[in-house]
Design a protein that fits this description.
- The chain is an all-alpha fold.
- The protein has one domain (2-154).
- Helices cover 67% and strands 0% of the residues.
- It has helices spanning 2-11, 31-43, 49-60, 73-82, 84-105, 113-144, 148-154.
- Helix 1 packs antiparallel against helix 5.
- The longest helix is centred in the last third of the chain and has 32 residues, at 113-144.
- It starts with a helix and ends with a helix.
Length: 158
């Protein structure tokens, strides 16, 4: 799947992408890198920008001798907002690859192109929804001392 995302990213015109940081921000902030990162994560059903940023930190930091500048959740959210169409193109490529794998494995006999378009759209919306829930919980934590998720687990509504 990574190769499918990489091929799709290479086909996107770099002039169509909007950067969220300057060219000197580091390699991970480059628009095509962020495009591939988000498309790959959404294809793997990892939607939360906080989770993606945390995974980047865990997986990349140990391999860099110098301090590397990594995007935070807000940078990832801004990139998604500015480049949603390009993310959708690359995500559709990844989802097409996954669908072809399921056909080869005999799990399904065919997949309609319209379903792949709808699924890509749904996953981007899921990412936006996940981020808005996390922001809402953070607001509730600051305001009331506990987040909504904590209140639900405790069986109380604050």
């Amino acid at each position: 799947m990574a190769e499918a995302v990489e091929l799709a990213v290479e086909q996107v015109d770099a002039n169509c992408l909007r950067a969220v940081a300057g060219a000197d921000a580091g390699p991970v902030f480059q628009p095509k890198t962020m495009l591939g990162l988000l498309a790959f994560c959404y294809a793997r059903q990892v939607y939360g920008s906080r989770e993606i940023a945390a995974q980047l930190g865990r997986e990349l930091k140990p391999f860099w001798v110098n301090d590397i500048n990594l995007p935070d959740a807000l940078s990832l959210q801004r990139f998604r907002a500015e480049n949603r169409d390009s993310i959708a193109v690359c995500l559709r490529s990844a989802l097409s690859f996954l669908a072809e794998e399921k056909i080869r494995q005999g799990v399904v006999t065919h997949v309609k192109r319209a379903h792949i378009y709808q699924e890509a759209h749904r996953r981007i919306i899921m990412a936006m929804f996940t981020d808005s829930l996390e922001a809402s919980e953070e607001t509730n934590t600051r305001r009331f001392g506990c987040g909504f998720g904590v209140a639900v687990r405790r069986g109380r509504v604050h």
